Every structure is written in C-alpha cells, then in structure tokens.
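SUBJECT: A protein chain and its fold
Encoding: whole-number codes for local backbone shapes
Chain under study, with its fold:
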Amino acid sequence: MDTVLKEALEHAMKTTPSDIDSFCRRYGFSRSSYYVMRDKGYGPRELVIGRLVRITAEAEAEWLHEREAAAERRRALREATPSARRASRTAA
C-alpha cells in the first residue's frame, strides 16, 4: 500500500464522519465526480441523517480497500492481456 493510501486509511480510522466536500478534498476529486462514482456503485456507503449526508470512518476505510482491490484486479488484467494477445496471434 502506498504512503498516501496508508495515511488516508489511518485518517479514516481516527475521525468523525466526513461530509462529501471534505471527502472529495481529501482524495482530490470534484463533488460531481463523487456523484458519478456513487451513481455507478463505486462510492463509499453514506450515512444519511435528515438532509445531511456523512461518510463514516468505517465506510471510508472500506471504500479505500475496495478501490485498492479494484486497481489490483485491473493491473492483473492488463498484465495478463498482452500475453493472451500474443498467444492468439501466434496461433493464427
């Protein structure tokens, strides 16, 4: 795990729930990008209290682990794909 993710994870485990703007600032993306991610099912779990939306430390940590796992799966797929392409070219 790289240093930035490690620090973010430690922060997530120690803090009170974040609002969406704070969450976005911490990870360097816009509020509109957050909503796109959420709508696609990639956002963190949200705690809704009346009209307030918060992201708990646990939800943030879970989100970090999910995103890290997804990145690892994409990396593994990218590494596997070129060899599969080469194999199909040599068989043709």
Observations:
- DSSP finds four helices and two strands in the chain.
- The mean pLDDT is 85.
- Helices lie at 3-14, 20-27, 31-39, 57-91.
- The chain has one domain: 3-91.
